[in-house]
Design brief:
Helix content: 40-55%
Bound molecules: flavin-adenine dinucleotide
CATH superfamily of the largest domain: Butyryl-CoA Dehydrogenase, subunit A, domain 2
Number of strands: 8
Structural class: alpha+beta
Number of helices: 13
Strand content: 5-15%
CATH topology of the largest domain: Butyryl-CoA Dehydrogenase, subunit A, domain 2
Number of domains: 3
Radius of gyration: 22 Å
Mean pLDDT: 89
Largest sheet: 4 strands, mixed
Low-confidence stretches: 260-270
Shape: globular
CATH class of the largest domain: Mainly Beta
């Protein structure tokens, strides 16, 4: 059974269908653990599920990308219905693909700008966790002002030859494909001379060097591109229109990072706020009036985030693509999660020094450290505020003296 095989379902029918599929596909002890709330049984059942095989099965059934059209491996559901699906997947605590750059950003971009051939080739394996994707936008000399990037793509017959360096490229070390923005016309103003490509990360000339971060993980990388050849058929959108295509990716990135694409505000970052409240009650922190006030404030923020995400999903349901409201939730989610992580350290005390979120003492200094990135990744909070001032509040645009100058004449350090 897949997501829908027939006429539109009511929310309750859909919920039944998800639950039936989960109960048919999960090992029996897993289902029993959920039914009885037995976390120890669940921990014993987890090894019975092989991660890659499970993600593929979830994707093949359409549950990993419920709103994508069925012909591209999705579930063909409305955004509101996707929430029902995600609620049940969360309730059953099933593993989910980490291919979020593909599913959350690459997929919608290919859907909007790609040829039919590219859509059929790339979307199903992306949904099924069979091909991981990365985003090759930022460079050492271009982050917030990514339109100023220097990586060059030059036409050679039916191919493009790419040279340059990217940085901060999350998942590049495991990616099969990347979304690449490169400069094809240095004489044009910076936003006009860009073109967008799909690049094979295993092509000759692509070198990936992992960067270690303070959590000890190496989730992002430097990527060096030397004479990398990309067929013109792997271009998304017209030559010179790469900024418009990149904007589609960036709008969807903000939505993906705000939690709007998942089940909402309660499951973000270091775990549900409710779990922290329970820990505060068990450990005595709840009797401290200042901590209690901060906990209640965190609960309110998480509800506000959830409701704002519902609103933005409803707007998309009515046919509007992801718009600047993604910047509101991206900004709010990033700062809320940092406040929440700080609060968790204060509530848990020395237990917060435990490294693993699943440790018996319940802390997670790792989550605290990782949350520092929230206000940088996907556009910094300062940049989100600029976008909101400019596009939502209608304030005067930030001055940019280089905006209309040919890119090659703009002073740069590298
Ligand atoms: C965990 C993580 C994962 C990432 N993954 C990816 C990825 O997969 N792919 C990818 O392409 N990129 C990725 N990035 C890069 C990210 O998009 C950039 O770090 C971000 O856009 C900021 O760019 P920058 O680091 O060059 O900082 P800069 O742009 O140099 O900014 C430095 C400081 O100046 C401020 N600033 C800059 N311009 C303005 C302005 N106009 N007004 C006010 N303040 C300003 C910034 O807010 C910041 O505080 C990732 C970053 C992180 C932290």
């Amino acid at each position: 059974m897949t997501v829908t095989e027939d006429a539109p379902l009511t929310d309750e029918q859909l919920r039944d269908r998800v639950v039936t599929w989960l109960r048919d596909n999960l090992p029996a002890p897993w289902v029993e653990a959920i039914d009885t709330g037995d976390d120890q049984l669940l921990a014993r059942a987890r090894p019975q599920v092989e991660f890659n095989e499970w993600c593929a099965r979830l994707g093949e059934a359409g549950w990993a990308t419920p709103t994508w059209p069925r012909e591209y491996g999705g579930g063909g559901l409305e955004p509101g219905q996707a929430r029902v699906v995600n609620e049940e997947l969360s309730r059953y605590k099933v593993p989910r693909s980490f291919n979020v750059i593909g599913i959350g950003m690459g997929g919608p971009t290919i859907m909007q700008w790609g040829s039919e051939e590219l859509k059929h080739r790339y979307l199903p394996p992306m949904a099924q966790h069979k091909e991981i994707w990365c985003q090759l936008f930022s460079e050492p000399g271009a982050g917030s002002d990514v339109a100023g990037l220097s990586t060059r793509a030059e036409r050679d017959g039916d191919e493009w030859v790419v040279n340059g360096q990217k940085v901060w490229t999350t998942l590049a070390h495991v990616a099969s494909f990347g979304m690449l923005v490169a400069r094809t016309d240095p004489d044009a103003p910076k936003h006009k001379g860009l073109t967008y490509f799909v690049v094979d990360m295993h092509a000759p000339g692509v070198e990936v060097r992992p960067l270690k971060q303070m959590t000890g993980d190496a989730e992002f990388n430097e990527v060096f591109l030397t004479d990398v050849r990309i067929p013109d058929s792997h271009r998304l959108g017209p030559v010179g229109e790469g900024w418009a295509v990149a904007t589609t990716t960036l709008m969807n990135e903000r939505v993906a990072l705000s939690g709007a694409g998942s089940s909402g505000g309660d499951n973000v970052g270091g775990g549900p706020v409710d779990a922290l409240v329970a820990a505060a009650k068990a450990g005595g922190a709840w009797s401290d009036p200042v901590l209690r006030q901060r906990l209640v404030q965190a609960m309110i923020e998480s509800r506000v985030l959830k409701i704002t995400n519902f609103r933005s999903a409803a707007a998309r349901k009515s046919g509007r693509p992801a718009g600047p409201e993604g910047s509101i939730t991206k900004l709010f989610q990033a700062e809320h999660n940092q406040r929440l992580q700080n609060l968790a350290v204060d509530v848990l005390g020395s237990a917060a020094l435990a490294w693993d979120q699943n440790s018996p003492v319940g802390g997670s200094v790792r989550g605290f450290l990782r949350s520092r990135a929230n206000t940088i990744e996907g556009g910094t909070s300062e940049v989100m505020r600029n976008i909101l001032g400019d596009r939502v509040l209608g304030l005067p645009r930030e001055p940019d003296p280089s905006r209309n100058a040919p890119w090659k004449d703009i002073p740069r350090s590298s």
